[in-house]
Amino acid sequence: EAGVAQSPRYKIIEKRQSVAFWCNPISGHATLYWYQQILGQGPKLLIQFQNNGVVDDSQLPKDRFSAERLKGVDSTLKIQPAKLEDSAVYLCASSIGDRVFEQFFGPGTRLTVL
Amino acid sequence: GENVEQHPSTLSVQEGDSAVIKCTYSDSASNYFPWYKQELGKGPQLIIDIRSNVGEKKDQRIAVTLNKTAKHFSLHITETQPEDSAVYFCAAMGGSQGNLIFGKGTKLSVKP
User: Among A27, A50, B44, B77, who pairs with B38 as Cys (CB 3.0-4.6 Å)?
Assistant: First the structure.
């Protein structure tokens, strides 16, 4: 079974620039999550989708971050404009459904903002 | 909201020894407690989990125990091997926030 795919794996940008990350969840997984993992810390949830609807985006900095999951499969997370403190690994995870607890993570995208 | 504390932050053991990592949580409504292993440059990998209706769960060299009264749970790795070296995260879910709250991680080093 293929795992969660993410791209790009690495991205370096300057502050105030824009960046977008892409995620393809495990086939058949209805729930998709985006996490931010700052160096030395555990992942922190940014947004959760159930199919193509948002379940929880309470921790998403909506003034600069946006995410969408069109057609209930792939998802993109965008940052515009980026700040230095956005430097982190952005992880995508998926689960079969929101009532199934096991989450499977992708390899992440390491973002460096200079 | 939920808060998960994890200790120790670093742990070094000799190959063949046991390793124990402990976590506490604050929200008594939490009912799902997974453990993830994260190797350098990779995403977290689920290695074992436990639900609130169970006190202990084992999977080969890995075991997790849960004490709901004290609100703490632990990961036990026996007969450690160099390939067990990684960062381990505990998490809790099911409380008022309804999503996974992670600890800060434990960097385990297993010396040959």
Answer: B44
Handedness of CA A23, A26, A28, A29 (dihedral sign): negative
Contact B44 A101 (CB under 8 A): no
Span B31-82, pLDDT tens digits: 999 999 999 989 999 999 999 888 999 999 999 999 999 999 999 999 999 9
Contacts of B6 in chain A (CB under 8 A): 42
Per-residue pLDDT, B66: 96
Residues B43, A102: C-beta atoms closer than 8 Å: no
Regarding beta strands B86-92 and A88-95, do their DSSP bridges make them parallel or antiparallel, or are they unpaired?
unpaired
Which two three-digit tokens encode residue A13?
């940008």
Quote the CA–CA distance of B45 and B48 in Å, as a whole number. Answer: 9
Interface test with A, best of B2, B32, B100, B101 (most A CBs within 10 A): B100
